[in-house]
């Protein structure tokens, strides 16, 4: 709360009292704090890979270059960290584009079944590496009016998360069904799950339940923030059900009348 005060004097100049005006600036302060936190987070996230790339290149120049195995190992890390920077910058730009006022979807008549199918194909390689089975149970020829590129991004983020947070030999199921006035996409995994109190936070920018695990898998902590924005832009929503140690269910709901 911000307080402004002014003294009041009587006509004979004798002091009478004070007027105090209280402004509730909690909302503004919170926004300002969020902006500061975001800038601090971005700086930290950018600095980490740069520090690593710098450190390894210095070590190579200091003589490690003589050792072929070490050189290969260090170059591998440097490549991984550069890729990480690239992904991070890409996701940050995406997020800023989507959050900008006046952001517009590029709407067209879509075949959701094809769209989800394409995404499943994209992640097959990632799943195979972990021996994870992808079961896809899609109603045929589901139509929806939306932004194909953005929706592909939503499906990719969810299915790819499901694979990332599921241990080897688990399974990920993708379902698509059409009801009278809505289209539902469900991504069900047999993964590590999310503690109930963390569920509302996973849509925050840079929030991760387990930072190390996310980082190791190349995560930026921005994926679900992007998903949430895209869903809202479509007038849809996302629901999360999860049981730690059992798995998670992410449900996307698209309303047909608002499409
Ligand atoms: P990240 O790049 O870290 O995956 P996201 O924004 O996509 O970022 O997700 C935020 C966090 O939510 C993740 O770090 C992870 O802790 C949690 N999370 C997302 N999807 C799942 C899932 N299917 N199972 C378990 N945890 C998940």
Automatic annotation (TrEMBL):
Main location: membrane
GO cellular component, one term: plasma membrane
Taxonomic path: Bacteria, Bacillati, Bacillota, Bacilli, Bacillales
EC number(s) from the headed UniProt entry: 2.7.13.3
Molecular-function GO term, any one: phosphorelay sensor kinase activity
Protein's GO biological process: cellular response to phosphate starvation; regulation of DNA-templated transcription
EC category: transferase
Residues of the full protein shown: 219 to 477 of 477
Subcellular location: Cell membrane
Species: Salimicrobium halophilum
Protein name: histidine kinase
Top-rank lineage group of the source organism: Bacteria
Keyword entries, A-Z: ATP-binding, Cell membrane, Kinase, Membrane, Nucleotide-binding, Phosphoprotein, Transferase, Transmembrane, Transmembrane helix, Two-component regulatory system
Topology with respect to the bilayer: Multi-pass membrane protein
Occurrences of domain Histidine kinase (ranges): 41-258
Annotated catalysed reactions: ATP + protein L-histidine = ADP + protein N-phospho-L-histidine
């Amino acid at each position: 709360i911000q307080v402004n005060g002014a003294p009041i004097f009587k006509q004979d100049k004798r002091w009478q009292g004070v007027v105090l005006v209280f402004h509730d600036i909690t909302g503004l302060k919170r926004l300002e704090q969020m902006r500061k936190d975001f800038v601090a987070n971005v700086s930290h996230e950018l600095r980490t890979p740069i520090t690593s790339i710098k450190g390894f290149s210095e070590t190579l120049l200091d003589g490690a270059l003589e050792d072929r195995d070490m050189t290969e190992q260090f170059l591998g890390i440097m490549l991984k960290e550069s890729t990480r920077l690239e992904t991070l910058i890409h996701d940050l730009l995406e997020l800023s584009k989507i959050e900008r006022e006046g952001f517009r979807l590029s709407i067209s008549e879509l075949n959701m079944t094809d769209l989800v199918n394409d995404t499943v194909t994209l992640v097959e390689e990632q799943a195979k590496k972990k021996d994870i089975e992808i079961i896809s149970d899609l109603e045929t020829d589901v139509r929806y009016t939306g932004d194909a590129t953005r929706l592909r991004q939503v499906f990719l983020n969810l299915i790819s998360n499901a694979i990332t947070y599921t241990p080897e030999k688990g399974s990920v199921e993708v379902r698509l069904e059409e009801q009278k006035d809505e289209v539902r996409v469900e991504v069900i995994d047999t993964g590590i799950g999310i503690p109930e109190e963390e569920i509302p936070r996973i849509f925050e920018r840079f929030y991760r339940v387990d930072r190390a695990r996310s980082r190791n898998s190349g995560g930026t902590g921005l994926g679900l923030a992007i998903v949430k924005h895209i869903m809202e832009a479509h007038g849809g929503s996302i629901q999360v059900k999860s049981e730690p140690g059992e798995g998670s269910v992410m449900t996307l709901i698209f309303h047909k009348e608002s499409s």
